[in-house]
Amino acid sequence: MLEAGAVRSDERVLRIAYANGIRIFDTAKVYGTEKNFKKWFEQDPRSARRSSSSPRICRGRPKKMLHMVDERLATLGTDYIDLFFITGWETSAR
């Protein structure tokens, strides 16, 4: 829908979803959506506290997890995440 030009801005989609009761959002670095959430949260700080963000990490080593969480917080422009999905785990010491 977004790529087809049906919606003028990603932030508008977020605002409409929020206004219609959606409170859980799935974000990820690979989705490329975090900048849109940051912009929305800056425009309406209350939405950041009333929404549940669930960033994902596709792969990572255990030692780097806290750094990855901090990175996602900074990219989202918030200090608050409800859920943090880890969808892969590296066990080898590369």
Write the layout of secondary structure elements.
Layout: H1 10-19, E1 24-28, H2 34-43, H3 45-50, E2 52-57, H4 65-76, E3 85-86
Parallel strand pairs: 1-2, 2-3
Please tell me about this protein's structure.
The protein has 94 residues and is of the alpha/beta class. 40% of the residues lie in helices and 14% in strands. It is elongated, with a radius of gyration of 14 Å. The N and C termini lie far apart (39 Å). The mean pLDDT is 76.
Question: TL;DR?
Answer:
This protein has 94 residues and is α/β, with parallel strands linked by helices. It is built from 4 helices and 3 strands.
Report the end-to-end length measured between terminal Cα atoms.
39 Å
Helical region count?
Answer: 4
Strand order of the largest sheet: 1-2-3
Runs in which pLDDT lies below 50 for 5 or more consecutive residues are none
Silhouette:
elongated
How much helicity do the residues have? 40-55%
SSE-based structural type = alpha/beta
Radius of gyration based on Cα positions: 14 Å
Q: Largest sheet, if any?
A: 3 strands, parallel
The count of DSSP E runs of length 2 or more, i.e. the number of strands, is 3
Q: H/E element string?
A: HEHHEHE
| Overall pLDDT level | 76
Strand content: 5-15%
Features:
94 residues; alpha/beta; three-stranded parallel β-sheet; 4 helices
